[in-house]
Description:
The chain has 4 helices and 14 strands. By secondary structure, it is of the alpha/beta class. Strands 6-7-8-9-10-11-14-12 form an 8-stranded mixed β-sheet, covered by helices on one side. β9 (99-103), α2 (113-119) and β10 form a beta-alpha-beta unit. The relative contact order is 0.15.
Amino acid sequence: xxxxxxxxxxxxxxxxxxxxxxxxxxxxxxxxxxxxxxxxxxxxxxxxxxxxxxxxxxxxxxxxxxxxxxxxxxxxxxxxxxxxxxxxxxxxxxxxxxxxxxxxxxxxxxxxxxxxxxxxxxxxxxxxxxxxxxxxxxxxxxxxxxxxxxxxxxxxxxxxxxxxxxxxxxxxxxxxxxxxxxxxxxxxxxxxxxxxxxxx
Length: 200
């Protein structure tokens, strides 16, 4: 089961990726107890490990197996200047029972050929769409077309109450023109093709 917790936070059964604390970004505090927490980079809106607990894997590059998941961390950048402005991010490929989820964290630039090959064709692609400090909605839509996921979870965009000055998700939805479902949980066995999943 994939849980959508707002901003860039996802859960996959007992694992969490990029937890936030709620209050510091104007969103409700998430309620989740993790056994394993992956952090793409150490910015305040992505690394609230103390809120969810569990063993933390922070900005990890390489390949490992933990809690029944195969985890691959691929180095990326938070900006278009090879990390000189905002640093690096770990983009995660998480796989279990041949089900693959790719989380791009706060990716700030397009992917190179090697990164594309490593991260292509997941069941679910979670990527930032709100621009300003990450790729924008148009770049995100181009990445979806290039990586060819079955389904998409947009991350890191403005919603009512959000304290960060990000763009809304609507231009991304209009550009991609896929079916949209609002939900808090996505069952892997019921995953629909060419579908965008959004939290309530």
